[in-house]
Amino acid sequence: MTGRSVLHEAGARQSTAQRRRTRRRRRALAALVTVALAVATLLAFMAADASGPRSPRHRLAARSPTPAGRRVAPPQYGATLAPAFARVTVKRLKLGLRSGILFDVRTGRVMWGRDPTAITPIASLTKMMTALVVVAHAKPSDRVLITSAATQFTGSGVGLLPLGKRVPLLALLYGLLLPSGNDAAIALAQHVAGNQAKFIGMMNRRASAMGLTCTHFSSVSGVVDQGNYSCTRDMAVLAHAMLLQPLLRRIVATRSAVIPFPIKGGRLYLYNNNPLLLGRYAGADGVKTGYTVAAGQCLVATARRGAAWLGVVLLHSGDIYDQGEQLLNAGFAKLRAR
Length: 338
Fold this sequence. Notes:
By secondary structure, the protein is of the alpha+beta class. Helices cover 41% and strands 19% of the residues. The protein is built from ten helices and twelve strands. The strands form four sheets. It has a six-stranded mixed sheet with strand order 1-3-2-12-11-10, sandwiched between helices. The protein has a two-stranded antiparallel ribbon with strand order 4-7. A hairpin with a 2-residue loop joins β11 and β12. α2 packs parallel to α7 (232-243), α4 crosses α5 (182-193) and α5 (182-193) crosses α6 (196-209). The longest helix has 49 residues, at 3-51. The chain starts with a helix and ends with a helix.
C-alpha cells in the first residue's frame, strides 16, 4: 500500500468518527431540549396553580374537559353555578351574614353565594337530618315512648310530652319541624336507635353517604354547638333530600297544625316558626330555622312561583327574614327577566 493510500484511509476513518460524534451530540442535545420543555411545562402548571385560590372553601371546583366516550358525572348538587343569565348580583345585603347561598331547588344550581363552604354551627337546622333519618327507619304510624330524657330537654320544645306514655311518631315529626322541639328530637332518636349517641352515628353516616363534606353532627337537635357544624352548600343538599320526601315536604310547608295527642284536651297545637311562612311570603313552602348564640340566626327557606322553585340558606345572619326575602326576590326577578 502506498503512503498516499494509507493517509487517505486514515482520513476516511477520522471523518466517519467525526460524523458519529456529531450524531451523538445532536441526539444528546435533542434529549436535553425535550427534558427542558417538560420541566418548563411542569413549572408553568405549578405556577398557575400557586397563583390561584388557595382553598376550595371560597370557590366552586373547576371541571376539566371530559374525553369523548367517557361518562360524565352529574354535577354536584349545590356546587354548580347557574348559567350567567340566571345568576344574581346583590349589591348590599341588609345587616350581616357569614355565609349564604341562593339556589334552584330542582337542579341545585347556585344563583348567588357568599362563602358557601365556610364551616359554622347550624343550630336547629340539624333537625333536617334528624327528620330524614327518622323517616328512613320508622313509620309515621309508630308509637313513641316518652322518656325522662325527652322531658328534661333544654331550649325550644313542644313542651307537653307526657312522660311514660306513647305518642304518635307523626305528631313528633310535626313537633320537631314546626316549633323546633328539642324534646321531640330526643324522643325520636331514642325510638329509632335506642339512645341519642347511636342516632348521632346514624346521622353522620347518612351525611357521609350524601357527600356532605362540611358537615358533622354531635347533637340530635342542634342545641349543642361544639362539633355540630356544616356549610350553606351542604345545607342546600340536605334540604333538597328532605324535600324529596312527600311527608316531610308537607310538614315543613305547614303554618300550623292541630294534632290528636294524649294530653288534657286531647289536642296538640303547633305553630311553624319560619318567618317567611308566618309573614306569608308569596310561594313560601319551607323549610327550617335555627338559633344559638354561636350559630346566630339560621334559615333554610324555599318558595315556588309558577315553574320556579328557589331556595336560600343563611348561616349566622343578622336578619333571616329580610335577607331571605331579599335574595329570593332577586332570584325570582332574575328568572322573570329572562
